[in-house]
Amino acid sequence: MEEHQEELATIEAIDSGAVYTLALKTHVGMSIQTFRYFAGWCDKIQGSTIPINQARPNRNLTFTKKEPIG
Questions:
Q1: Is the pTM of this model over 0.85?
Q2: What are phi and psi of 32, to 5 degrees?
Q3: To 5 degrees, how large is the angle CA 56–CA 62–CA 64?
Q4: Which Gene3D superfamilies match (predicted)?
Q5: CB environment 39-70: b (16+ within 10 A), e (fewer)
């Protein structure tokens, strides 16, 4: 996206009717920042699993919801 940000901003300006500088700095620029932010979480998210009854493996759903205490 960074390599083609001017082209993306031009397309966005035509598509949405936004001013080119707004499309470049806000729409495309913030999209790049958002991708970088969430890409950074890929190696930081950790999870755990809970053993469940295997009697009906296709009908069971289990998840862990972590909530702060205190």
A1: no
A2: -60, -45
A3: 165
A4: Aldehyde Dehydrogenase, Chain A, domain 1
A5: eeeeeeeeeeeeeeeeeeeeeeeeeeeeeeee
Which amino acid makes up residue 66? Answer: K
- What is the tens place of the pLDDT at every residue in 5-41? 999 999 999 999 999 999 999 999 999 999 999 888 8
Q: How far is Cα of residue 13 from the mean position of the Cα atoms in its chain?
A: 23
Q: What are 56's two structure tokens?
A: 């009906």
Neighbouring residues of 9: CB distance < 8 A, sequence distance ≥ 6: 20, 23, 24, 27, 28
